[in-house]
Fold Benzoquinone reductase.
Amino acid sequence: MPAKIAVIYYSMYGHIKTLATKAAEAAKATGAEVDLLQFPETLSDDILAKMHSPPKDAAVPFVTPTDLPKYDGIIFAFPTRYGRAVAQVSAFFDATGSLWATGALTGKFASTITSSASQNGGQETTHLTTIPYFTHQGMIYVPIGYGDQALLGLGEIHGGSPWGASTLAAGDGSRQPSELETGVAAYQGKYFAGIVNTFVAGKAAQ
């Protein structure tokens, strides 16, 4: 039985969607069943228009809290705001109290992808400040370490760390994810899926 994995993203201008899509494609290539989902929007259409936010991709379903328990592993992808998850993701996490109360996510695997406007925009702290949510839900956090040697390169400015893939969007959102950054996202998807696949196979063999 293949592992069931969700890659759930929030992306206002497309940077995170690009990384999430790469991670999902790489995870699927391992043989896992992979769903690409997006967090619900909390801002009004009027505010989004003033922010010049493009429409959400109608082909990607919005996730609900009741969707989460059916997955063996979940990659959460979202931008950083002041070193933590954006409000849309925090609101979603706050809506999963019933899952915590029933232990529905205990033993599930989790990993994170993020972005920031600048090099020192809080990417690593966003990974770090999301771990308490996983801890309270009993989820198993999976960082990527330095398995992708591209993370060690100093030849170009890039996002990404041993915590997970990330990108630098620039203050005006003009910078798109680089080939190196999308490569790290693909590595993360493959690595994460490999771990979840191994766990699911081992559990089935018991």
Q: What stands out?
A: The longest helix spans residues 179-205.
